Amino acid sequence: MKTKLEEAREIINSVDKEMIDLFILRMSAGAMVAEYKKENHLPILDEKREQELKKKNLSLLNRPDLEKYYAIFFEGVLNASKEYQKDKIK
User: Fold this and answer.
1) Which of 26, 53, 62, 85 could form a disulfide with 34 if both were Cys (CB 3.0 to 4.6 A apart)?
2) Domain count of the chain?
3) Quick one: DSSP state of residue 3?
4) pLDDT digits 0-9 by tens, 43-85
5) Which residues contact 33 (CB under 8 A, 6 or more apart)?
6) Contacts of 78 (CB under 8 A, 6+ apart)
């Protein structure tokens, strides 16, 4: 019989795998964005778009107790995406 810790770790491992797959997909889309921005001489940072994404995603969360932590998580996603776009444009 599994302990609660073992069960939790199995869930975490499964979610991490799914998140990796989704991360790859999101970064692939980020590469497409970078290509468009390069072709159209647009800056990497689109502050308005970032604010819209943050607001939209927080409204989808429906968990006020997790909003602070999701904001931290999503900020990391946005930063990774911007860094990747910078590298793709170079």
Assistant:
1) 85
2) 1
3) -
4) 999 999 999 999 999 999 999 999 999 999 999 999 999 999 9
5) 81, 85
6) 50, 53
Domain of 8 in residue numbering reads as: 4-89
What's the pTM?
0.90
Where would I find the H helices in 1-90? 4-39, 47-61, 67-89
User: How many Å apart are CA 79 and CA 2, to the nearest integer?
Assistant: 38
Between CA 4 and CA 46 the distance in angstroms is 43
Angular region, 55: left φ>0, alpha ψ -120 to 50, beta rest:
alpha
As a whole number of angstroms, the distance between CA 84 and CA 66 comes to 27
